[in-house]
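User: Please predict the structure of the protein below. I'd like the answer in structure-token form so I can feed it into my own downstream comparison script.

Assistant: Understood. Taking the following sequence of 82 residues as input:
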Amino acid sequence: MTLSLILACLWVLVASLAAMLPTRDRHWRLAYGLIAVGIPLLGYVTYQNGPWVGLLCLAAGVSVLRWPVIYLLRWLRGRFTA
């Protein structure tokens, strides 16, 4: 297993542990941090392992951070359908 995949697995583990923490802002600050670390990590995974593994890791990241993605899609829909 490459270093990038080990880091991606560690990212998923940290995201799962962060989801168990009680927060007042409904985990948004943690989500911003995970996104900031996850985007370059996704590029590193894709660079080392190819686009198919990168897409699998992208799907895993979207499943972990589904609410920011849902809010982004709602915002984009509102911007382009008005």
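That's the full token string. The chain has four helices and no strands.
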